[in-house]
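One chain given next:
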Amino acid sequence: MKLKALEGFKRAEIQMVIDTLKFSKKGKEESYKRLIDIALNKVITYRTQAELDGMEMKIMTHALMNKAMMLRAHYGMDKKSTERKHMYNLACTIATRRLQFQKKYGPSIEIEEAQTAGTVHAS
């Protein structure tokens, strides 16, 4: 199952996701770069209609959060604060949609009832 996680995003927000994904490839190992490229190509090609799986949404969330933290470390609290806040908000939106998606379509786990003193039989 896949989800259109960027549905409703504005053109500038999509461009911010694209730029952030491109930036996040720097310094990563080759296998992770390929995963970023897959998500990046989907976003570039389909924009708001890109169908993403949970891992791709997680990659986008991490990329946005890391770039926002890097901006804070580099420029401080005052400069670029609106851009940073916007990145955090986009990351939270994608993360929330991913969690809802996984809750709805993820595997259901049944928890077995633990034995209590009343149900345990001594042999």
Remarks:
- Residues 81-105 form the longest helix (25 residues).
